[in-house]
Amino acid sequence: MTEAVSAAWQRVEAVPQRTLKELFASDPGRVTRLSQRLEWGEGEIAGGIRFDWSKTHLDEDLLAAFEALAEARGFAAQRAALLGGEKINVTEGRAAEHTAQRGVGSEAAVEEAAALHARMKLLVEAIHEGALGPVKHLIHIGIGGSALGPAMAVDALTRDLALVDVHVVSNIDGLALEQAFAACDPATTLIAVASKTFTTIETMTNAASALNWLRDNGVSDPSGRVVALTASPEKAVEWGVDETRVLPFPESVGGRYSLWSSIGFPVALAVGWDEFEAMLAGARMVDEHFRDTDGRDNLCLRAAFADQYYTSVRGCQTRAVFAYDERLALLPDYLQQLEMESNGKRVTADQRPVSGPTAPITWGGVGTDAQHAVFQLLHQGTNLVPIDFIASVAPGDALDPAHHRILLTNCFAQGAALMAGDAGEDPARHFPGDRPSATMLCDDLNAAALGALVAFHEHRTFANAVLLGINPFDQFGVELGKRMAKDMEAGGGDFDASTRALLEAAGLG
Ligand code: F6P
User: Would you state the CATH architecture of domain 106-271?
Assistant: First the structure.
């Protein structure tokens, strides 16, 4: 850690702790100062999201101290390196060019992305036009970053209508695949095999079983029903997928950042190309904001300031996200991988031990359900948990407007209650209050808003990594377990007594 960085951290830590009530009382302009809308489009496609960080403990002193930390960490240069396609994933010697998929990045990467998208669009539209015969179902097989984004986006955007019925299967547990088979007609089903490396054991095993299922159910040319989404196109061809149905994406797009690439194929197939492009456009709007805005006005950086404050200064070990919207039911799962696989690290980018906590545990759920399950702890438990609320002004349902009104009032009431607290008649009924939350309020939860929300979280994750001095783009922590499972599967490996006994008990010893 450089002297400037450690001085900046000391400055952050020295800021006097004031309660949220005090912060609101002393600054009538607080809501305006700490709420901001990002907007896009005009006329019918106009939209926006209000980001309200006023119910966090960020104040003028903290914002200034964190701005000094960002400067000491070289935030502007790191951002330029990210967007300029430099090899900022230093441990793997790679760039991280997911924003180029949305049109923001080095000229070469943006051009390559446009060419690959054009190829993907042709295939999506050809399928819609019947080039592969009637296609009613898609079984999308992938795991981690090759599944969580597509699953979340398809779930969010197809509540009204899906052009193709998509089933995302990730788990090696055969039950997951059997469930998809039960819901699909083999004669009208396509299989998408999504894997950056095209080697992941879960995906390749599931893909082989899906082909067998097609064959066993009368499909004469099962591999003719497969589309491959991968950064290793040669492996897909070797595996038997015809080149015309291989949709490549660049190696420099990380798995958990790959929704925007051909990994988003099921989204485009389900909602149509225009909607997929609207999702990219929403993300691009956030990219531009992130690229062109400095200091606290950069919403992704501002959110990271609050994240760092709660984790490093207040010792919060988790952060929670509650979407008051059924369409975002899978968002917490998606964010878990994005944030925990990116920033769950114990060494800095130059491979020295970190001096404090890195990523908190991300968890969450859907409101109002979560209120009746986990909010007790959030209001009165001994853990301080910073919370994000996400909601949409426009309803996703067409029922009595009372539904949406009650949904929104509950969302806003929770934030207010967590902050206000209540004296109560006795200690059991006492609410300490002063519990922080942030709110993201979309005009409408359409494809553009979803793209914007996801890109916001990507850049927030990156901003946190920069403030911590870590590399968010590698994930070596997943390797050891994979290696040991492989050894075990092959009947080798030198395992401890407990593990040997478990193998024995399962009849695998
Ligand atoms: O095991 C973790 C991981 O490497 C993730 O980072 C990735 O998203 C996932 O596995 C799937 O990898 P692939 O797309 O190569 O199958």
Answer: 3-Layer(aba) Sandwich (3.40)
